[in-house]
Fold this sequence. Notes:
Blueprint: E1 3-7, E2 10-13, E3 18-25, E4 33-39, E5 46-52, E6 58-60, E7 68-73, E8 78-83, E9 92-98, E10 115-116, E11 120-125
Parallel strand pairs: 2-11
Antiparallel strand pairs: 1-3, 3-8, 4-5, 4-9, 5-6, 7-8, 9-10, 9-11
Amino acid sequence: QVQLVESGGGLVxxxxxxxxxxxxxxxxxxxxxxxxxxxxxxxxxxFVAAILxxxxxxxxxxxxxxxxxxxxxxxKNTVYLQMNSLKPEDTAVYYCAAPAAPKxxxxxxxxxxxxxxxxxxxxxxx
Length: 126
């Protein structure tokens, strides 16, 4: 079983910054990729960013490109999401996710992931 524990959410004014962390552990942790998704009330879960553990290739949703940065600390099995220039529309519960193994599904789709964290609330005030 894989455990994903997020931290770093909170309340911030528009234009501000937050950094989310997601610590991964577990004997079946594959270290293939990690992703961040978010879900606002009444909306579908939205892809935010993903990164491959090997090589560090990154992927971003269109709404966060140029403002958010995903990175990893490999020895700590931790992935970060640095969020800058936050907007009220970034308000959501943010989830980190990990696949058990690579799938024939694009890494930007929730179906590519098997394990999910509990979520952390990010609220951006105007």
